[in-house]
Design a protein that fits this description.
By secondary structure, the protein is of the alpha+beta class. The protein has 8 helices and 22 strands. Helix 4 (about 55-60) packs antiparallel against helix 5 (about 85-95). The structure holds heme C.
Length: about 425
């Protein structure tokens, strides 16, 4: 109905900001494109949006904005940042007809954004112990800040909120757990605040509390599902900083919300990865495949595709025991700067014996503008910025904690924290 109306409007008169465009920009762009946020310019009010009308038309037509690399129809995700073809056409037409204001007095107002914690006062707030200085220019940085949690007893976490200290310079953030001391050692070896890495955090995390990207909303895990947070763990905040053209300083913090309802299911991660990577120089379509068969019935919560600068596209699907294929995600074109954790809406239940299949394509030709080498050189597997990866992380839960342990253990992940979870799984008494 809405679509039909829109088309009718497009056919009869030039679209205006007030009548047609403001609502689209407010919903899909303004959460990031407003003063003080991560995007480099504001798309509200009208005068700002008008200045950028040609770029708006171009970026939305190319699908580079809003940032969201998952192709619609391959998995249903929470908070999908997607414009409909009608909306993309509308923005183009608005630009072509002179980006008219219309009756500005009647234009929809931008949404009100919560200033404080979105979910109310957290149970535990952890701040970066020192501010990070980000130089005006230079490459993006992934900085890992180690924060001792001071947690005195094991808890389960139902939600996490990340609050950037300086949203202009924070591109996204991930929150890992470490109970091995490895992150502290990496921190001690790096002269800066925290330590630098590329891709992963540089150690094998004992858990994860989730991630944050601008414009997103904070959500609770489903009732009864929690993330295991072991006492004494360090929290490792991995923040992706993007230089803004002037020196910036950031001191971010996280708010942790313990589960409100009794937790019967824990969240675990499995990775489906191909380490055998050796991409010849000049190869523009290098394919890697990997798979993992779920030994137990599993509920899929989210999927995080991961490649480096030669990544081109990644596709994952589930092959059920009866042969049914279900698309899990198709990321194309891969955008290294917008690595996303895609949260399934609703979660996907997959029977035991389901095979998770992952395919990734990599471009090591000179045509790939992100290629770290010019002219191209052979590139092999590795964690470094000039290496390549083909990794897909699935966050899962199972009805019984034993099944989670079995599934994760079978995936080859040797995890010390699992021993403690095993204790939780034992019936009390
Ligand atoms: C999740 C945050 C976010 C949302 C939502 C978003 N942008 Fe952006 N936008 C950015 C950031 C950050 C940049 C800077 C470049 C980058 O980091 O990719 C940017 C850059 C741009 C640029 C510069 C050229 C380019 O393609 O990089 C344009 C134009 C743009 N955005 C338009 C839009 C429009 C139009 C929308 C809504 C339809 C939108 N953006 C939604 C964060 C966002």
């Amino acid at each position: 109905m809405v679509t039909l109306l829109c088309i009718a409007v497009l056919q009869t008169e030039a679209p205006t900001y007030a009548k047609n465009v403001a609502s689209v920009l407010n919903r899909s762009c303004v959460p990031c494109h407003r003063p003080g946020e991560s995007a480099p310019f504001s798309l509200t009010p009208y005068a700002e949006a008008k200045k950028w009308s040609s770029m708006i038309a171009l970026a939305t037509k190319r699908r580079s904005m809003p940032p969201w690399s998952a192709i619609p129809g391959h998995g249903n995700f929470e908070g999908a940042r997607v414009l409909s073809p009608t909306e993309i056409r509308l923005l183009e037409l608005w630009h072509q007809t002179g980006a008219k204001p219309g009756n500005l007095a009647a234009a929809p107002k931008p949404p009100r954004f919560t200033k404080g914690w979105q979910l109310g006062e957290p149970d535990l707030v952890l701040s970066m112990p020192e501010a990070v200085d980000v130089p005006a220019e230079g490459p993006d940085q992934l900085r890992n800040i180690v924060i001792p949690s001071g947690l005195l007893q094991d808890r389960t976490v139902g939600a996490l909120e990340f609050r950037p200290g300086n949203a202009r310079v924070v591109h996204h953030a991930l929150v890992f757990l470490d109970n091995s001391g490895a992150a502290r050692r990496l921190d001690a070896a790096d002269p800066g605040v925290g330590y630098l890495s590329f891709g992963g955090p540089g150690f094998f995390p004992s858990g994860s509390l989730g991630g944050w990207a601008p414009g997103g909303t904070t959500k609770w895990l489903p009732d009864g599902v929690g993330r295991y947070f072991q006492k004494g763990s360090d929290v490792v905040l991995q923040v992706h900083y993007h230089p803004t053209g002037r020196p910036e300083r950031d001191q971010s913090k996280i708010g942790i919300y313990f589960s409100r309802k009794p937790v019967t299911q824990l969240v675990g991660g499995i990775s489906v990865e191909n380490w055998q990577i050796a991409i010849p120089a000049g190869d523009s379509n290098y394919l890697r495949t990997s798979s993992y068969t779920l030994p137990r019935e599993t509920t899929l919560l989210s999927i995080t595709p991961h490649m480096h600068l030669l990544g081109k596209e990644m596709r994952a699907r589930a092959i059920l025991p009866d042969g049914t294929r279900r698309p899990l995600v198709w990321v194309k074109p891969w955008n290294f700067r917008w690595q996303e954790t895609y949260i399934y809406k609703p979660s996907l239940r997959l029977p035991a014996g389901t095979r998770l299949e992952v395919e990734s394509w990599h471009d090591n030709s000179a045509k790939n503008l992100n290629n770290p080498f010019s002219p191209p050189r052979p590139v092999v597997y590795g964690e470094g910025s000039n290496d390549e990866m083909s990794l897909c992380i699935f966050e899962i839960t199972t009805d019984r904690i034993e099944d989670l342990l079995f599934t994760i253990h079978d995936n080859g992940v040797q995890n010390r924290v699992m021993e403690r979870i095993r204790l939780l799984a034992k019936p009390k008494g």
